[in-house]
């Protein structure tokens, strides 16, 4: 009787339930329900193991014999065919990671460092809107510079800032995939940027009200409503509208308002808490706002949460103004330079701008010029509220 190839295709089809040897330790296990399984018995590293080769009839007799011979060849090379197959499956699974899965995993890892844990979706937004619809279902290892170029080309010149954010975040996701051990091209983003070319888009800065006109505008905010009070406090402190809207009673101590690092622009692990000295005028505005406080917030919305970020902008829009609340930071910065003659480092700190290089900032991180800023904020508050017009005229004339 033959040692191998004992079975025939016709015999396999009509074989009764039980174990049927083809030779060379290849067996067909046929069940009572008619189903069957190919099994190869191997001995590797002194251990006898059974390796499944697939179900019959999906795996034919000829295919089972080919698989069995491949496994025997590995055994002859002292390779465990079962472990080698598992390794190949893992590699195949890694190579099939879709880009949308990598984006999701990257975001989960970044969440603790993002402002508000990324709940507003600003980090994900450029990817969700412009990238994932085209590349989300593509295995990350297959994404090349052509794919990225074709995805971002429609917005590269028309929505340059959004496209740039999307490109940078693609790069972060590619690095994350590489850290997972996936075979990706680490230079793919640089290559895509070279193909996209230099953008024709020019950044348009938010219009700012000239500092000389700020007192008149400030005086027009006289309704005593939350929106007017919020805009007044924004003008007086030079902070962003998000910080004003989320102002809480517990953030204030005396004449100092401490904005938590996670509420500042940027990443939480890189942004320390920021202290804002409150002028006497700012403290008066806050005292009025306290009358509307709810759940600890001084600027709550009508229903729940805090005042909308559009509330203050709409005041200016309804008046037909091109300027917006964020522009008052520029108004303050120019006043600091032209009128107050504030040192550059102090003026930049007034707006929570980083100054110097990373090394110099590490030595001065605990030095925020608070006393100097307190004096400048008081002067700004007096000017804005119209209580120091004579001083301003004198300073301008002197310059």
From TrEMBL:
SUPFAM superfamilies: DNA breaking-rejoining enzymes
Record's keyword terms, sorted: DNA integration, DNA recombination, DNA-binding
Keyword check for RNA-binding: no
Gene Ontology annotations of biological process type: DNA integration; DNA recombination
Family: Belongs to the 'phage' integrase family.
PANTHER family according to UniProt: PROPHAGE INTEGRASE (PTHR30629), PROPHAGE INTEGRASE INTS-RELATED (PTHR30629:SF2)
Name this protein carries in UniProt: Integrase
Organism this protein belongs to: Gemmobacter aquatilis
